Automatic annotation (TrEMBL):
Any GO BP annotation: fucose metabolic process
Molecular function, one GO term: glycosyltransferase activity
InterPro entries: FucosylTrfase_pln, GDP-Fuc_O-FucTrfase
Record protein name field: O-fucosyltransferase family protein
Key words, A-Z: Carbohydrate metabolism, Fucose metabolism, Glycoprotein, Glycosyltransferase, Membrane, Signal-anchor, Transferase, Transmembrane, Transmembrane helix
Amino acid sequence: MKIRTESVQVRCDKLQSPMIPRNRLRVWFVRVCLSIVLWTCLAQLVTLSELWHSHFISGITSRIYHTTLHPLEAENGVVQAPPPFTPPRKYTSNGFLRVSCNGGLNQMRAAICDMVTVARLLNLTLVVPELDKKSFWADPSNFEDIFDVRHFMDSLRDEVRIVKRVPKRFLSKNGSSTLDMPPVSWSNEKYYLEQILPLFSKYKVVHFNKTDARLANNGLPLDLQKLRCRVNYQALKFTPEIENLGQKLVQILRDKGPFVALHLRYEMDMLAFSGCTRGCTNEEAEELKQMRYAFPWWREKEIVSEERRSQGLCPLTPEETALILKALAFDRETQIYIASGEIYGGERRLAELRAAFPRIAKKETLLVHDELQQFQNHSSQMAALDFMVSVASNIFIPTYDGNMAKLVEGHRRYSGFEKSILLDRKKLVELIDMHQNGTISWDKFVHAVQRVHEKRMGQPALRRVVVDKPKEEDYFYANPHECF
């Protein structure tokens, strides 16, 4: 009996012994599976973290841009991220449109908006625009040095196909021909459909060598007008380097309180172009005249400065500007950012303005040299910084209605009709002369200046239309009311 029991026990042990490694294998297998699951979860978390971080950083950049130019706000006031890019529009391209923009930054900016609209209208493929390098400023910047080219291409892909260059098979060295031409100024939809589109049946590439004011202010279909706005306010985004530094300028100014952006267009090129020499020495007046003759495309050569001034066609001088700002009730504590290049005559001409408003600042005084060094000798990039500050300012005041003044005005209207004091120079120089020769007292001068500008603060208004005189109309980009 004892032996039998031991035999049974041995058999049981033999049966159990294979189970021991099998159990261990099962435990090992479970552990491996858990490890795989845990590592997979960890990898997913890392990926999500990276994606979140990427969206967070791009969200900051987006907020910088949209806070400065056009806030995308929900009803609760929270800034929203821009919507994702829509799928590309599918269409058969009629050819390639090359454009060479002429002028300064804001003239080129408006031209880019127009050329995207033309490409969309004619079902063309747009080549990334070429920027002017031969103007007075001789800025070597390319499109991608000023604007975020990838954002530009992607954000408009549901409207128009944009490429960085013409494919090699369409180049002249490969037997293809390109037509170079300037389109007619202030042209409407009919002109482009009837006069320009047929050219692409013969030339697969058409090059517009001038693009300033080549699209009408008025009389265009609503969808084309809205596309111009979409390009201007959403697709044309400055490079991260420009945006970051521009936002830093805005923050420095805001930390010190509300500020006025004064676009003091008293620069050498403007004075030479307009022939305005009030306050200049005889030597300076001669220097400006010589510059005017040096540029053959500046058609007017012999200009009477005082006559031009009386017509309101001269930028206000720094001294006149100081007088007007005081009449508009700005006091010595007003923080003023001068958005401009080098003032002609330097500190000598700024002395009276600085004495009246000591809290004057410029980008050169707010930033250290190293921060601005990368933008030196690149006037368009420097102008982009001034543009951002001007759009973000509490009040914007241009002393001349050039392209920057008009586009900033339009941005501020689009951003909720932020205050822009649009000076009536013709009336102002008349009042200034009357006050300085003793015809009217200071109190009457102040009352008259303020009354003249009651309805010139950038309030909502329809553009002025002048049939057959597009140059006398209100400029589309100063007041794109179809887009509000």
